[in-house]
User: Fold these one by one.
Assistant:
Number 1:
Amino acid sequence: MTVNRREMLTMLAGASLLPAHLAFADAADDAATPLKELARRKGMRFGNAIANAPNRFGDPAYRALMARECGVLVCETETKWQGLEPRQGQMHFQPADEMFAWAKTQGMQLRGHCLVWQPEKWLPAWVNARDFSAHGSRAAEGLLREHITGVCQHFGKDVYSYDVINEAVDPASGDYRSNVFTRSLGAVEQIDLAFRLAHEQAPHAQLVYNDYMRGDAGSARHRAGVLKLLAALKARGTPINALGLQSHIGSWDEKGDGANAAREWRKFLDEVSGMGYDLLITEFDVNDRKLPADVAARDAGVAALAKDYLDLTLSYPRLRDFLLWGMADHVSWLQTWDEAPRKDKLPMRPCPYDAKLQAKPLRAAIAAALVAMPARA
């Protein structure tokens, strides 16, 4: 049986033979160097998504941790359509504006997430209730134009990169998702239009398609669907610059296929890069639901999973952005996501810092991967 480094670290930690804090003791840079600085040295941006909530942006300690470690801020929900305009015509920019203003005082750059979240359940209810049948595609196009223009004009040149379309491919089938816009405009046509409108209003910005495909067998149709979409957009001359890799890694696919998953992931990234697209890690965390309950063993396993994934993914020089989706365990979306919980019901430990804002082995694994990756041109 072949055992890779990830499996060995996990087994040793589980047997209490390897203290979790030593799993990456050979990292080339010590913990005193901010992650944003390690990334900057190699030509990469490093940041985090944060929500305007009392235990996140409203927590001075958590905000200070982010200021120390990050050079980019992304809003978790405040720049999504349902966050900006929960009721038609009532724009709600204040929470995002507050976070963006603070970020600029810290010298951070700003990313926009996301102009259109494609699944129907994530569009505002009033958008889903619209009936475009009387006026056809013109009414659907008009609403998209109004929204994208309003957001891009409000933020102006402050936002250097937008997730224009989020999650347009159904992971089970690989087909394009259907919503109120696709039924009037067509799926590829609607996505193309959204990118053209974003380019028209924010010609300075990097424009990104963002999705959560992975390398495992259970994600094969998802990967194929994303490649099909990217090829279709390229053929149309759509002004799309990059693919966002959400990178919610860890224990997802019950089939589990180890080394083959890494090969398929590299093959996928090669195909995307071969089309001329850049890459971003947009929402990184590690689902630990299949790792042991023991904290030391679990943290070592999470760190090893992360290092293997990052060593592969960061080897692509066209990848210049690395964003976390939460810096500390207690604020992670995985704590309340009920589709793939831990069977023992323990809180997950998916982030580089724990609930007390103490660094974990995952933080050391991220630092080691940033130090080891090739420099960007």
Note: The chain is about 40% helix and 15% strand.
Number 2:
Amino acid sequence: MDKAFTKGLRLLEALALSEQPRGVTDLAGELKLTKSNVHRLLMTLQSQGYVRQIPPHSTYELTTKIWALGSHVIHRMDLINVARPAMTKLAEITGETIHLSVLEDTDVVYVDKIESAHHIRAHTSVGMRAPAFTMATGKAMLAHMPDDYLERFRPHLRRYTETTRTTIKELREDIELARAQGYSAVLHGEWREGIAACACAILGRSGELVGAIGMSGPDTRVKRKQIREYSVHVMEAARTIGAALGYSNRQTAYSGVRSAPADPPPSHQSRRAP
């Protein structure tokens, strides 16, 4: 067990439970640590943005960073619980693997999934990360981010499969297409070979991006026709989850969604795999 780490956690707990800022001597007495030890831990926590010093008496209190981290965890748990019924329905309709993902910087993180009953299926696991620029759920979420967000992918663009999009220009084309049709479509995997998918972003109470829901399966079974048919149900699942989270302004958020979305231009689809 890392003793320094444990001491730091105990110090965080002590500050979190305090109703007012605390001094070094006070904290040292409660935690049965030396004052130099407590001061060193406080300086480390302060440098990382978890603690701030209150003048003029050199007392310390927590910042809202702990709260923000906790809010992310609660938010994610709420999303998983709320999304399950829609995921189950989508799995029954499509018969394929259903994913619930969130965006973390340049990655998507799978926070829940329902496995396909087919023997041949997309193999992923909850907690797994993947490059957002190669994934259907990733591109669906990026369609709701500011245009300049794509610049953070520039140093990470690399080819994983023959159809990986490797330039910002190509990635921007995919994002514009996702915005226009309301979902991101995959015909051939960009991160792993042989995977077809489609996904739609999920918006929260204030219209903020909270995640994405998508279905995926082998491209030998999930063809362009199936993607077009399934996309309607994927978008409906995203709307249902968003509504359950408190979002109601669907027209603004899904202005590009059509009840019967048209296929992207064949020349573009043949070389893309979001």
Note: The first helix runs from residue 3 to 17.
